[in-house]
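tmp note - Secreted protein
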Amino acid sequence: MKNWVFLLLFAFVICSCGTPKASVLQKSPSVFLVSVDKKATSPMDVIDVQLSDGEQWVSGSFQYIDESGSGEAILSSKGYDSFGLLVSAPKLPFNPIKAMVSYRTEKDGIIKSILVEFDSNN
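out:
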């Protein structure tokens, strides 16, 4: 029984380490940079980025960018262990405090989400 519990705990730790991590930075009143860290071998297809003040949610348009130095636009996150999402939300009717990134890890797979609180230092 102890071995079974140990294996289950080990599997949980391994799975939790594989989830992408993100942070968000407000560049201007309508432009935000979401930085995502993941395994380079793990696919991640971003579907939507939403901004919220805790009550309202607004989807922003986004573009993948290379955060490894160039800041250039990229077509997808494939092969990158970190990348950025440049999010634009013109005429935002509120001051956002969090962002939600919705993504898939396989074609037509389950949609997963990362909820990211804005850093108070931003």
